[in-house]
């Protein structure tokens, strides 16, 4: 980018957004971070922090003055306002990088993709595999003992480090050559949940093991977990059942291809986040 117009990062306080803010700053770009709670966002002083709420698209419009490129993800449980938000961005910004979601029952990934690529702005869509940070859903169990209980232990996932998703997003926000493309990102390996628990135990130096629950037992456990949103319990377990019954996972080399660095392993992710399990 040749000017110093800020890059707008929506959902800047989340797992991926914070990494994007950090990596953009490190590369010398001006960053404007959007959050619903600017006073508690806790960014370095050179980050311009602004209030915005995706459920009210006019508040996003107010964040776009002088902006060059925008990073957007969709944390809401309905896709109803995605088109309005994308339209607001497309009118004001040159480029949009969107991280797609499988968590919106009323707007499929293909519909999100069509919507973002069809708005007349330079666009990139990122479709990541399962986030490694999801393993923190087991942190309470790991603090309490050496057993992780859950359903579908044989399900293979390719867990992805948020820093790798961010690295791809930063390239798409700042380099030419990513327009009109959808990038499917995975981690470097496909591990069953049983194997994931073993890796976490290895890194933490603990003899952790998996104990299989039925779907109903896992459902009751998650519903009783105050830190886990009730509305997401069936979405998650249905998603796991579908993945187990579906075609085998295909790993991609997209992270390496775009960033020049191999995708980080789960072992690396746990090493980076070991303190979060204690
Ligand atoms: N977990 C996975 O395995 C996985 C896989 C593929 C895709 N995804 C997708 O990744 C996204 C989650 O990314 P993440 O983990 O980085 O986020 P996260 O850590 O869950 O944080 C959510 C972010 O969204 C912001 N946010 C929530 N409601 C908002 C609203 N109404 N208006 C504006 N901002 C709002 C929050 O900001 P404030 O609270 O500061 O406003 C926060 O920055 C979801 O779309 C999910 O479907 C996840």
UniProtKB/TrEMBL annotation:
Residues 13-176 form the NAD(P)-binding domain. It comes from the Bacteria. InterPro entries: Ergot_Alk_Oxidoreductase, NAD(P)-bd_dom, NAD(P)-bd_dom_sf. Pfam families: NAD_binding_10. This is Uncharacterized protein YbjT (DUF2867 family). It comes from Actinoallomurus bryophytorum.
